[in-house]
Amino acid sequence: MAARGEPLERIELLQGTLDLIILQSLRWGPAHGYGLARLIQSTTKDVLTINTGSLYPALQRLERKGWIAAEWVVSENGQRVREYRLTGAGREQLVVERSKWELLSDAMTRILALQREGET
């Protein structure tokens, strides 16, 4: 854990959170893996950096569940890449995952706001 005032080098994601992040990111449109990782990093202002060792297994898992679909395409620079897009089932699951996240977020806010007697 970083000392007060020091930047966090890495934030560990709760299980399932990466799925939510991917589904939400693909809601904005299709993306290949590297582009998706860059989108997440830039959108979160470098707070979340998803490494390939986590990203690609998650993409494969979501594809097996039918929440995303993938196809091979040629990128702008002429490389063959696997592009991922959200499916109808994925849009439905995104609603479920967002709801779970909101419950967790509310619970964490209550816990962090809780003060014991005598604390300031």
SSE pattern, N- to C-terminal: HEHHEEH
CATH architecture: Orthogonal Bundle
As a percent range, the share of strand residues is 5-15%
Sheet with the most strands: spatial strand order: 1-3-2
Question: Uncertain spans, ≥5 residues at pLDDT below 50?
Answer: 5-9
The CATH class is Mainly Alpha
Rg from alpha-carbon coordinates: 17 Å
Note down, in words, how this protein is organized.
The chain has a three-stranded antiparallel beta sheet. Helix content is 52%, strand content 13%. It has four helices and three strands. About 4% of the residues have low confidence. Helix 1 crosses helix 4. A hairpin with a 5-residue loop joins strand 2 and strand 3. The protein has a single domain, classed as Orthogonal Bundle (Arc Repressor Mutant, subunit A), CATH 1.10.10.10. It is α+β, with helices and mostly antiparallel strands and 120 residues long. The two termini are 23 Å apart.
